[in-house]
Amino acid sequence: MPVINRIAGFADDMVGWRRHLHQHPELGFDCYQTAAFVAERLREFGVDEIHEGIAKTGLVALIKGKGDGGVIGLRADMDALPIEEATGADHASTIPGKMHACGHDGHTTMLLGAAKYLAETRNFSGTVALIFQPAEEDGGGGGVMVDEGIMDRFGIEQVYAIHNVPGFPAGMFMTGPGPVLAAVDTFHIHIKGIGGHAANPHETRDPIVCAVAMVQAINTIVSRNIYARDELVVSVTQIHAGSAENVIADKAYINGTVRTFDPKVQDQVEGRLTEIVAGQAAAFGVEARLEYDRHYPATVNDIAKSEFAAEVARDVSDQVIYQEGREMGAEDFSYMLQARPGAFMMLGQGEDSAGLHQPEYDFNDDVAPIGASYFVRLVERAQPLR
Fold first, then answer.
1. Cα separation of 206 and 178, whole Å?
2. Residue 249 CB neighbours (<10 A)
């Protein structure tokens, strides 16, 4: 079964919603205009309840079906990124230094499209909880909404989300059982030495040579400390030190990211980083401090729910891939999947699309009706009328 005819009929409206959102990007938890736009559309659609101000600017809207039943949650993220847009599109961002470079404007539009159809037809039992969250990119808004009690407050029993994926055919669905995206941690290393004149290095304790040694040791964690079949990425992404060619700095800073699927591997990496920082600091006679921050957990699909999600996707598209496969990116929908069973679905956005988080990226409006139809069929098949 292709895109639902009624949704195809208001596809132009969806383009308008999406491009409005694209022109007015907001960051983190400060999605005030975005949330207001979403709430205004939902009131026009005639949803039964709108609960605002969750996780600062998040909201949950309820649509009740035609009979008693459970509650299914559908989630979309609303926040943008601190990137200067370079698409040249007529609907490009009007806010300097901010743009929807990850497609959250499209995710929000797909859920609005589903909301409009579901509020009109109500061909399901129980209740749909539409979750619009801020701060997916930075801040873990999904986790904050869970911590503020949305799952219990609204009786949500299962939960689903979509993310667009550039580089794959438009309309292709992809998901799988178990872990699909990694946990993400961040490490910060602060090194304090003794600076001085570069002509007299013997009078200093150079934090730069210590930082270089630390980075070399950190790059052996994957190859020498962790079992080869335990998926792991450790990347040093920043080193800052020094201000002039004839001055040995007194401080250095190292920053990086860790991606894992197994909490035991997380513990091993943090432990090994602790040893490396302490050992290299002692070797070079400097002081060093490690900060290790655990951020989003791994995104783990419920096996039965992911199988169901793939079946539903086949109602909408003849391009559905269901297989085990893990990516090292991260998602804060992981917090919702920790709280309730569900599935995270990928939706191809086009093989010629620019990549996520790039200034040239723009969501493909043609796939929005496909995603909205998928959301609708999830509801109708998970909670059919009796």
1. 46
2. 21
Topology of domain 5-179+298-382, per CATH?
Answer: Aminopeptidase (3.40.630)
Alpha carbon distances (Å) from 338 to 49, 94, 182, 300, 324: 25, 37, 14, 8, 19
Contact (CB, 8 A) for 381 and 328: no
Per-residue pLDDT of the chain (386 residues; tens, 9 = 90+): 589 999 999 999 999 999 999 999 999 999 999 999 999 999 999 999 999 999 999 999 999 999 999 999 999 999 999 999 999 999 999 999 999 999 999 999 999 999 999 999 999 999 999 999 999 999 999 999 999 999 999 999 999 999 999 999 999 999 999 999 999 999 999 999 999 999 999 999 999 999 999 999 999 999 999 999 999 999 999 999 999 999 999 999 999 999 999 999 999 999 999 999 999 999 999 999 999 999 999 999 999 999 999 999 999 999 999 998 899 999 999 999 999 999 999 999 999 999 999 999 999 999 999 999 999 999 999 999 98
Give the tokens for residue 354: 């620019």
CA-CA distances (angstroms) from residue 230 to 263, 266, 324, 325?
A: 11, 11, 15, 14
Helix extents (H) in 228-341: 263-284, 303-316, 333-339
DSSP of 140-154: -HHHHHHHTTHHHHT
Alpha-carbon distance 168 to 178, whole Å? 22
Instruction: Provide the 8-state DSSP code for 365.
Output: G
Which architecture does CATH list for 183-294? Answer: 2-Layer Sandwich (3.30)
First to last CA, the chain: 22
pTM, rounded to two decimals: 0.94
Shared fold status for 5-179+298-382 and 183-294: no
Q: 268: how many CB neighbours lie within 10 A of its CB?
A: 18
Domain ranges of the chain: 5-179+298-382, 183-294
Strand partners, 381: none
Q: Which residue has tokens 């079946």?
A: 311
The C-alpha angle 115, 159, 77, rounded to 5 degrees, equals: 60
Tokens of 383: 């909670």
CB 182 within 8 A of CB 259: yes
Listed in sequence order, the residues at least 6 apart from 265 whose beta carbon sits closer than 8 Å to its beta carbon are 226, 230, 232
